[in-house]
Amino acid sequence: MLNPAFPDGAPNWVDLGTPDLDGALAFYGGLFGWELLPGGPEVGGYGMFTLEGHTVAGVMTVPEEQSSSAWSVYFQSSDVSSTAQLVNQAGGRLSFEPMEVLDYGRMGGFLDPAGAYFGVWQPRQNPGVGMIQQPGSLLWVELYTPDVPAASRFFGDVFRWKTEPLKVEGTEYVYTTVHPAGTGPELSFGGLVTMSDVPAEAARGPHWLPYFEVEDVEGAVAAAKRLGGAEALPPMQVPGVGTMANVTDPYGAVFALMKPQPRQGGEGGAPGD
């Protein structure tokens, strides 16, 4: 499960790049109940999606002709510049130089050796998302990659992640979960998936996929369609994990929905919990 303390290497932020801010607000507001806290010119119009007063994601406008709409996942670092050096040493590349974001923190953008983009956030006044593992908020992140062992080595070198094999109940499939250094598998926050295992996601190339919790996956998929989105992967139940589906928003940004299977004691969980 995600750790609200955000240790180094854990996901602490997600944001959406979209060509239509008003249209995105209509979609995600209708789907999750999100509201928009607009950003001023000092942050280039970068805004925040909020739910019940808590920040759940960032959002920015991207020119439609220059970039496709997409979700990005960011990971905690206490020193973005040092992380940039580790990325380079491990065979990754810089997408943009680490930079200051007013007094909120520092950020950097990178590509792993397979080409999957990821961000790094060094918090100051903005510690990260303010709600996790609740309906309408971030629950899990997943990397689609052509080479899981290579990705494990790369992110292990950069963030000191630890990996654990997880055999999916009732199948022969083994899923690779990841958790921060110095923690155990109970704090797994994501997984690594071989792209060829999921052709619909393989067609998008290597990428990180955020999961948002919902109370009813089938109902949320139906709502996404009504709001102009599309089903990318139909709802499926994974024994011991929960029900999940992948959808795209009206502008092509892909993300996942998940209703975790209740753990003992009645709380939801995610793979590795």
UniProtKB/TrEMBL annotation:
<dbReference type="InterPro" id="IPR052164">
    <property type="entry name" value="Anthracycline_SecMetBiosynth"/>
</dbReference>
<feature type="domain" description="VOC">
    <location>
        <begin position="10"/>
        <end position="123"/>
    </location>
</feature>
<dbReference type="InterPro" id="IPR029068">
    <property type="entry name" value="Glyas_Bleomycin-R_OHBP_Dase"/>
</dbReference>
<protein>
    <submittedName>
        <fullName>VOC family protein</fullName>
    </submittedName>
</protein>
<dbReference type="InterPro" id="IPR004360">
    <property type="entry name" value="Glyas_Fos-R_dOase_dom"/>
</dbReference>
<feature type="domain" description="VOC">
    <location>
        <begin position="137"/>
        <end position="260"/>
    </location>
</feature>
<dbReference type="Pfam" id="PF00903">
    <property type="entry name" value="Glyoxalase"/>
</dbReference>
<dbReference type="InterPro" id="IPR037523">
    <property type="entry name" value="VOC_core"/>
</dbReference>
